[in-house]
Amino acid sequence: MAKKAAAAKPNNITAKTLPLARVVSVQDDIVTIEAARTVDGPGLLVKNEVIYILPKRLGAGGRQERLKAEILRVRGNRADAQVYESTKGVGIGDEVEQSGQLLSVQLGPGLLGQVYDGLQNPLEGLAQAHGTFLPRGVEIEALDQKQKWSFTAHAKATDTVRAGDVLGSVAERHLTHKIMAPFDIEGEARVIWIQEGNFNISEPVAEIETRDKQRRIVSLQQAWPVRRPLPLTLMRAGVSERLYPDEPLITTLRLIDTFFPIARGGVACIPGPFGAGKTVLQNLISRYSDVDVVVIVACGERAGEVVETIKEFPNLSDPKTGGSLMDRTVIICNTSSMPVAAREASIYTGITLSEYYRQMGLDVLLLADSTSRWAQAMRETSGRLEEIPGEEAFPAYLDSSIKGVYERAGVMRTNDGSVGSLTMIGTVSPAGGNFEEPVTQSTLATVKTFLGLSADRAYKRFYPSVDPLLSWSRYLEQLSSWYEQNLRPGWSARVNEMIELLNRGSSVYQMMQVTGEEGITLNDFVTYQKATLLDMVYLQQDAYDPVDVSTPIVRQQTAFDLVYHLVTRDYAFSDKAGAQDHFTRMTGLMKNLNYAVFNSAGYKDLIKQIETLDQSVSEIILPEKA
Ligand SMILES: Nc1ncnc2c1ncn2[C@@H]1O[C@H](COP(=O)(O)OP(=O)(O)OP(=O)(O)O)[C@@H](O)[C@H]1O
Ligand SMILES: [Mg+2]
Question: 544 CA to middle of ligand 1, Å?
């Protein structure tokens, strides 16, 4: 019993007095272990407990390896565990050390700017200590142990605090990093003493006495089990509270912010076929979104792609602070060459770090690329455990796992009354671009914004290649009062009107494919031209142009009003050639406008030219021409 309580509290490291369990079978990265017998019967095995396998066969240089694994399933005195390393050379009878802890992450100052693997080993640290080829079973502290942080106390001795209450803060890069009372304390605790000064993350900054008269030293860091939502106990205790998202997350991508918005604290997915532009779109969102912290989980992506991001980010500047983009970013990366089990864990590691920063009242964006590879990792493990498979051999709990992850996003009123948000966007890479497969379907049933990429648009180089006829956002409706107040009355209705125009344009286009241009009326032809203009100058956005790459919301509103006028007015064209000519010229001017610095002289000049061109076509349509 004592063991179980310890496992539930990751901060309490139990003394390793337990007799050792042993390996009884090995199958790929799944090992079955058997608990050791004690006088009281078999030792206790706990689901999701971390264990270490100690192979009898020693590693290079006679080093005793310790291979990290996590218990997935307990059956009596045996348990199946997934090993986060290669199991080469692991044999029956090898000793197993039980940690008494659930798979956890270290939380504290120093997370920002780090690049971790799925188990929060800093990749740079690993490489420095062990070269490019990492030996098995090496773990490195997730946070710098030596760096000193200047701690300012917000609480004082004799104060009563509860889990998650702010005890003080340190400055981490451009952020105020709140140091919170341990998230696992129950009820009220009393601050015995608290001290200010320069400390590393392990040095004591305070001592508290819990309800059951236990004294606990508090340092700048604490641990939390990744598979359990961090604010769960805080919400149950009523000190933190979930709120409804009530404003959009501005990404400065016109197609998203205007047409398919994502709420701050909302959930979105980007499914798309191979090479359609998922990663580029996610990178754009991570760069330009108005948030404090970005956590990128690169899950099973090709190594080269991840390396590119890691190399690129430190050189890019954060549009909000002007500092390096890496200052607000944490990257968790598992390339497809890393063990499958670590890939499964990486998404939970990422979301727990995100929840931690949200709990400080910050706006956090979590990007997971790709959730399909995460689901595949789950499928492989489930197969090895011989669980009853569901659709396409994915485990039957696929749907609840996907929901469970996205549900951890949201807006949170934290203990001190500040409001933080965690927005989650996941890419999905269905084989052959078939959106009917289980991962896409489960994700679609969970998220509220669906940005479906199309191979056809990518082929035409219509970027971002989000298909406006396929995509949707429930937030356009849900946040309509924000748009009414901050943009203009009737905003959502106007956007829907534009989506409707795109649909009509597409029908005309299809008709033209059959009948040719001659087979359709002038009116239909103009509808098609209007839809094309909207697509070319508003939906499409040039990621390689320094101005067009990012359109602030104020500019989006102006641009939208202009394009709305151009595509809702009547045109008295005498023939299709005249219509075509007009829209081609208008598209050119509007594109140049997108490239012009907002409200610059060049911009104002283009506006004049657009007005002149617009006024050159009368609105009065003669009845016989309609
Ligand atoms: N917004 C964009 N602007 C210009 N080019 C783009 C854009 N998006 C994608 N591309 C082009 O398409 C290529 C593939 O994009 P990306 O790597 O994002 O696809 P993906 O969907 O992530 O592919 P995979 O399925 O392999 O992960 C890019 O290397 C780039 O050349
Ligand atoms: Mg990709």
Answer: 13
